[in-house]
Write a structure and sequence with these properties.
The complex is a heterodimer of chains A (90) and B (323).
Chain A: H1 24-27, E1 40-42, E2 47-50, E3 55-60, E4 63-66, E5 72-73
Antiparallel strand pairs in A: 1-2, 2-3, 3-4, 3-5
Chain B: H1 9-18, H2 20-24, H3 28-43, E1 50-54, H4 60-68, E2 73-78, H5 81-84, E3 91-94, E4 106-112, H6 121-130, E5 132-144, H7 149-163, H8 176-185, E6 189-202, H9 205-214, H10 231-244, E7 252-264, H11 283-287, H12 291-295, H13 302-305, H14 310-320
Parallel strand pairs in B: 1-2, 1-4, 2-3, 4-5
Antiparallel strand pairs in B: 5-7, 6-7
The chains are: A mainly beta (90), B alpha/beta (323).
Chain lengths: 90, 323
């Protein structure tokens, strides 16, 4: 999982290139570019999920791709975890 | 979606990916922008621990700033993945005008040679301001004003002659006089804007076009003609350019106006204008003039102001007199 990208021999400039993990300094600064809401980092899928926008932004080689046109639209079956759901109106 | 878009953002992103190699080359112009931007940063006696570089390309500014102060963390953000992966971490792929960063995340936001490519400059500036802490610094440089005015003129004339119309070939640029107002409208305090005019020369108009394309600056205007550029139009443009805008050695002149702006996210600690009417000293007395001059209408030297004082008077009056 920690293999460097093979299609690019010159990408050696970063000493702390930790494979697929997002730089932790960056993670706390990122929000959804559309809604400016917090993101949920799905390590398993390598995605930053914006529940508010219904989009999942990919993470490639540890670099978050925060472009709307590159994001995956969340499916119907991808239920929002209960703790993130808003309380229903009484 | 009622506002017409100037740039085709998808085309811009594709082009930036495709020309990543060219965008990483050190061009004379980018060198100039970088040097002058870093000079201006040096003039500001303050440290900026967390910096965002918008349109960072391959992270050149991040490397420069890290070499000066190893404690500085520079986040490099660029729309092209092919460029971003050459930038030092932390880095993110991001559109220029849809920033994915939390409010108050940075002490400084900088941008070198990218903001001429956004559709919504006021919107982009607002997002940059939001990403700044109070009293955080915005420092940006990009081509504007009369940049490429000769090329625009030559294209328009050649195309009008050959096709009876003109399609946009050269992007519209922000005027230096508008930028200060845009910064204020975006909520920035203490904006300072200035322009450095460079005149480059090229051997031939086609060499200029090739250079622009390699730098990822080919036409991405939304209204650009989809049929591409006709060869006869291209040749007529070159002829026109060579006839109208050459220097003594027969090389073509290329105007580039680099706009520089510094501004600050508002903070209570900054100098504020006093409330209107809060003055306690008579202006005339402060200036050492007879108060009667200010109160009694116009002095009789009105005629003098029509002469050489006209330029200064017009400037001062136009800027703040109307508010």
């Amino acid at each position: 999982m920690t293999e460097p990208p093979t299609d690019d021999a010159t990408a050696t400039s970063t000493p702390d290139d930790g494979g697929d993990a997002i730089d932790p300094r960056l993670l706390e600064l990122l929000v959804c570019p559309l809604t400016k809401q917090v993101l949920r980092y799905d390590r398993g899928r390598g995605e930053l999920v914006s529940e508010a926008a219904g989009l999942a932004y990919p993470v490639r080689d540890g670099i978050p791709i925060m472009l709307v046109e590159e994001a995956r639209t969340l499916g119907e079956d991808e239920a929002i975890p209960d703790e993130l759901k808003a309380d229903p109106e009484p | 979606m009622s506002t017409p878009l100037v740039f085709d953002t998808a085309a811009l992103h594709r082009q930036r990916e495709r020309h990543a190699a060219g965008l990483m080359e050190d061009s004379f112009l980018l060198d100039e922008i970088h040097t002058r931007l870093v000079d201006r940063l040096d003039d500001i006696k303050r440290r900026f621990p967390r910096v965002l570089d918008v349109g960072a390309r391959h992270g050149r500014l991040a490397r420069t700033l890290a070499a000066r102060d190893p404690d500085t963390v520079v986040v490099s953000a660029d729309p092209a993945q092919a460029l971003t992966r050459h930038a030092p971490a932390p880095r993110a792929v991001s559109a220029l005008e849809l920033l994915p960063f939390a409010d108050h995340a940075f002490d400084a936001v900088i941008s070198a040679g990218s903001l001429h490519l956004v559709n919504d400059l006021p919107g982009a500036l607002v997002q940059m301001r939001r990403a700044l802490v109070p009293d955080g610094l915005l420092l940006v440089a990009f081509p504007g004003g009369d940049t490429l005015v000769e090329l625009r003129r030559a294209f328009t004339m050649a195309e009008a002659e050959l096709t009876g119309g003109a399609s946009p070939r050269v992007a519209p640029f922000v005027d230096v006089r508008d930028l200060g107002g845009l910064l204020q409208r975006a909520g920035f305090a203490l904006p300072v804007v200035d322009v450095d005019r460079l005149t480059l020369t090229y051997g031939h108009p086609l060499a200029l076009l090739a250079d622009l394309r390699r730098a990822g600056e080919a036409n991405v205007l939304a209204e650009r003609s989809r049929r591409g550029l006709r060869r006869d139009v291209l040749m007529a443009m070159a002829e026109r350019y060579l006839a109208d805008d050459v220097d003594a050695r027969g090389r073509i002149n290329v105007t580039v106006d680099l706009l520089f702006a510094t501004a600050w996210a508002p903070d209570a600690s900054q100098p504020q204008p006093k409330r209107r009417g809060s003055g306690t000293v008579n202006l005339a007395r402060a200036m050492g003039v007879d108060p009667a001059i200010l109160e009694g209408g116009r002095p009789d030297d009105e005629a003098d102001r029509g002469g050489d004082g006209d330029g200064d008077g017009g400037k001062g009056g136009g800027g703040d007199g109307s508010g």
